[in-house]
Specification:
2 strands, about 5% strand, mainly alpha, membrane, ABC-type transporter activity, globular, two-stranded antiparallel ribbon, 14 helices, transmembrane helix, transmembrane
């Protein structure tokens, strides 16, 4: 594993554009810290400081930071599809196989890289969240601090799943731009299917089925936190209640998609004439 990971890291770090994108991918999550210090001037009458409103209290901060940080995943998605596009355009994929790398090892080197960078990003978000929370939160008991730590696991699984999908699209079309376009097409297709289902069965059942779709299942790992924040400020608003928890079956769904995308990437490479 380490040999394959080291091989892939050398390719990425020798490429200037990949280095820049990787750097941006790791720097952007730190903008969550800026969010914590954001001050909003309301028509010159008073100033709202998010850090003083309690939105960074434990345990809700785990939900808030992982949701916002996951929005920056598209930058590393470019790196993932570029890993494949560059292999084909530079003919290095054929050279690697000639030098003794099996097709399975080639795919696994990409997957190990995805897991490696997802893990680094997850560790960064963990320490960023912990730091902001310890600074702003009114609750410092360990039992409260780590109540919603499951969002960190969900964040990691979400990144690995999404980047594995990018890997599959990169293998499918062999071009970075087209692979990213396929993500947008998949998003549209999922909503078209949802609309078709809604017109034939009740909307609740259609939404349950939609939650099994690749992109939607990844999104469902970390639902939007805004209603939860509002609920914490107005607990009597029962109409706003929704299920925002991280469920084990949601993680299993995304892990199944991840395994499928990696397997399909391997099958594409195995059956393709290079």
């Amino acid at each position: 594993m380490l040999r394959l990971l080291n091989l892939e890291l050398q390719k990425l770090l020798l490429n200037r554009s990949s280095r820049v994108l990787i750097f941006i991918s790791f720097v952007l999550p730190f903008f969550v810290i800026l969010l914590s210090s954001l001050k909003i001037n309301v028509f010159g009458l008073f100033t709202l400081e998010l850090g003083e409103l309690g939105v960074f209290n434990f345990p809700i901060i785990w939900h808030l930071t992982t949701f916002f940080a996951s929005q920056f995943k598209f930058f590393f998605a470019i790196v993932v599809v570029s890993m494949i596009g560059n292999e084909y355009s530079n003919k290095t994929i054929k050279q690697n196989l000639i030098d003794g790398l099996s097709k399975k090892e080639f795919i696994m080197s990409k997957f190990y890289t995805i897991v490696f960078f997802s893990l680094i990003s997850t560790v960064l978000i963990f320490f960023i969240t912990l730091s902001i929370g310890l600074y702003y939160s009114s609750y410092t008991e360990a039992s409260i601090i780590f109540t919603d730590i499951s969002y960190i696991m969900a964040y990691f699984v979400k990144l690995v799943g999404f980047f594995s999908l990018c890997l599959f699209f990169g293998m499918l079309v062999k071009r970075s731009a087209f692979a990213l376009a396929f993500l947008f097409i998949l998003f549209i297709v999922e909503w078209i299917l949802y609309a078709i289902l809604s017109s034939n069965i009740n909307s609740d059942m259609a939404e349950r089925i939609q939650n099994f779709f690749p992109l939607k299942s990844m999104y469902k790992l970390i639902d939007q936190p805004f209603q939860r924040i509002t609920m914490s400020k107005f607990p009597d608003k029962s109409a706003m209640t929704y299920d925002y928890a991280v469920h084990s079956y949601e993680i299993i769904i995304v892990l199944c998609w991840t395994a499928l995308f990696v397997f399909l990437s391997y099958k594409l490479l195995k059956n393709r004439d290079l």
